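Dear Dr. K.,

Following up on our conversation at the group meeting, I've run the structure prediction for Elongation factor 1-beta-like isoform 1 from Coptotermes formosanus. I'm pasting the input sequence below exactly as I used it, so you can double-check it against your construct before we proceed with anything downstream. Let me know if the numbering doesn't match what you have in your notebook.
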Amino acid sequence: MAVGDLKTEQGIKSLDAFLADHSYVEGFQASQADVSVFESLAKPPSAATPHLLRWYNHINSFGDERKTLPGEKRIPAALVGEAAAANNADDDEDVDLFGSDEEDDAETAKLKEERLKAYAEKKSKKPALIAKSSIVLDVKPWDDETDMKDMEAKVRTITMDGLVWGASKLVPVGFGIHKLQIMCVVEDEKVSVDYLIEEIQNFEQHVQSVDIVAFNKI
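The predicted structure tokens came back this morning:
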């Protein structure tokens, strides 16, 4: 999906389909790739494309901080490939490996067998997919006297197999109080989200409560 396609209804639908299974257009945290796609949109998305709208509001919430996001400002090649695949009626399972061939002689049969064998070997070498989720958490302090840097440092001390902490920011909630909004990626079979929240709430001197803002399968 080229940048120009984002000006069309079909391009917007393709991007919405892509974001149904992705939190960001590339990787596990907001980057300049997201900014590039964000700025390429002709207008804010509507409720007709809920996944795109969720992503758009999240990137928009960074405000001026978008300039400081990591990475290269470009439309990622992976997005082009996957979004195009979302519009393709046939996937790789339905690919005609051999095409049409009117000559059904021994040489053609041998060629088909070799190609089929090569295809089967290639499929067998594909690594098993690991189910992961991208989660955005709101960690709320008790009051405006809570040391938010110290609170974030304590949250990041929580380590376990299958957990990776990502970007974070402070979001004002009123009366001089800010909440910590922090992202993480977890392997579903290894990390219980309920357990992770309990661990964060164990920092009772800093943390009042924890809410899930976004939960997306990767």
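Two things stood out to me. The CA atoms of residues 24 and 206 lie 30 Å apart. Residues 82-101 have pLDDT under 50 and may be disordered.

Best regards,
J.T.
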